[in-house]
Design brief:
The complex is a heterodimer of chains A (111) and B (556).
Chain A (H helix, E strand, L loop, with lengths): L2 H53 L1 E3 L6 E3 L1 E5 L6 E5 L12 E3 L6 E3 L2
Antiparallel strand pairs in A: 1-2, 3-4, 5-6
Chain B lengths: L4 H10 L1 H34 L5 E5 L5 E4 L1 H4 L3 E4 L6 H18 L13 E6 L3 H16 L2 H10 E4 L5 E2 L14 H15 L6 H17 L5 H9 L1 H8 L5 H8 L1 H4 L2 H15 L2 H8 L2 H4 L11 E5 L7 H18 L9 E6 L1 H5 L6 H10 L5 E7 L2 H4 L2 H10 L2 E4 L6 H4 L15 H13 L5 E6 L5 E4 L16 H13 L4 E2 H17 L24 H8 L9
Parallel strand pairs in B: 3-9, 3-10, 4-7, 4-8, 5-7, 8-9
Antiparallel strand pairs in B: 1-2, 6-13, 10-11, 11-12
Classes of the chains: A alpha+beta (111), B alpha/beta (556).
Chain lengths: 111, 556
Amino acid sequence: MFGGSIWRLTVVWWIVQAIRWGTLLLLYLLAAPIYLLLALCLLPRLVRGLRAIRSGMTNCSACALPNSLNRLTTCHRCGAAEYGCRLFCTNCGRLSHGFPCDRCTAVIPIF
Amino acid sequence: MKAFDPLLAGLFRWTHDQNAARAHAYEDALVQGPARAASTAWSRAALALGGKGALSFGTLPSGDLVSVRRAEALRSALIIGASGAGKTRLLLHVLGTLLRDGVAAPSSSATAADGHVQFELVDPKYETYDVLGQTLAALWSELDEEGQASLTDAVRVIDWSPEAVTPFAPFDARGSITTPAYLAHLRTDIAIQSSPADYPEAVRQALFMLHRLLVTCRFPLNYRFVERLFFEAAYRARILERVADADIRAYFSSVESLVAPQTLRALLWRVQKDLSFPEIRLSEGLPPAALDHLAVRGAGCPIVLGNYSSQFLPASKGRERANHRVTDVLLRAPQRDTTRPGLLVLEEASALLAGRGELTEPLLTATRTLRSVGFGIWYCTQDLQNALPSPLVRMLQLNTRWWAVFQTLEEAEWVYPHVLATSHVGGPSDEAARHREFLRRMAGLPRRAFYLAAKGHPALPLQVPLVADPGTTLEPRQSAAELRAIFQREFARPCQVAAAVAEAAIQTWEAEVVDGGGIPPVSPGPPTTAAPSGPRVSNAAELIRHLLGATPTVEP
């Protein structure tokens, strides 16, 4: 009694799914160049940040003081103090994109 | 950038061990490194300050001695700090070194690097004068006869006691480049500024004109003379007959109509009060003409020690005399021998400058300009910023070459920009907190510790070397009392006139000028830098005989 209806419903469901995923794919495809552009824009910052992390030092753009990225720091969120990179807290997973200069306290953006 | 956060978080977790190791290494270097860096920077600055014939100022925390080349050290400077912080110790250390170098140097050489420096100490508080006097006495004891004679000839002492006084002729314009009117103006202004008494405008003017007359006639200040001059018209007329200046003649001819009698009486009371102190009456009252013939060591000595303390005189009189002396030194400074650097050391300088009288401007001008003739002024004082008006402080700050800043709060601000940032080992990391910490440290700086800030160099944290008591280095060791006795006998007495001699000279002058009513012929007087040219008189009897026309006994 319901065999034909179930079959039709299944077909319709697959069509709906195909349209849904197809639309999503289409949207992703349409957005891809924008994301690509965005990624290209952010890539230098990322490279600079990674380079700073690798060297462990970065100069303050305001007072030119060389600041170390790795030192004893206290997390502003959870208060955990640890030796390590001052941009990341291994206790609470907080990630910072910059930190204040040790001398002039101006923010030094890393990422 | 949020898109990369998970990626970055993973990266940080992955590299955490490596980062932690680097953080440990950095923190270790933070504790050890600045001390090394600061030490290196201080040593470098100390090296840059040194040079030929350098004068030692103190030791760095590392124990290294810091010396400043003489040309730099003898420029105008400020020595600031709280009472008991070590300013006088620094002065004694440096001036003691100058004295020893001067004695050790061959007399034929006459440059700063060889040790020959002319300096004058103006001490309104006695301590520095006393210890330097003892140092001189100790040095004298170590020398042979020839050395002793040349040392005593090189030193002039300005001091007053009830037994003997250093003569002072404030109204003697001989050898001075100033006009009588300007000299009278300076003397009047200083007398008024230093005096606790009130001087209304009319009294001021009368005092100025009186001083002009005294300078013109080459007379000393004398109560009986002033009384007769103001209140006896016939006597005044006789005195004015010999005065060439028309201004003075016009004023004194009509003084009774120009000046109210109560004004003249007020002036007379002030003169009377000033001269009621025997030390002042005897030293200022000595007629300049008599001084020409007294065997007193005077001008031309490269070392002058002046005691202007309130030991025997009221503080205001001591200050007045110090101001007169500083004025004389500054007036003569442009004509000085430039091959020898000159130094004027003003102890308790803020007390001298506080009145903001006529002395302030010449002092500031001298600080600014006299370096061209190799003359520097050291201002040794406490609480400079609160004691003096801010424009004056600013002028001093700008025109001095180096500052020695001892325990202080306000003046610590001056030094802070010159302190090496790396010297704050283990201190706070941000600028404001570091500044506060520095001010706190300066307010509680230990005794003898100071910052030496020479312009163009970083400020150096120094410790004044311990100054051994004079006499302890001698064999046999001499006590302070013995050294004072030597100083009095060998250095002070030849520069002074015994009270009896001075009294006799004043009485003779009064008999001749006040009672007799005549003006003695004005003798040309000796040049200021040469020894007295007249017959040398060393006691009252000889002086009286000389003044009465008899031939005095000539002292060897």
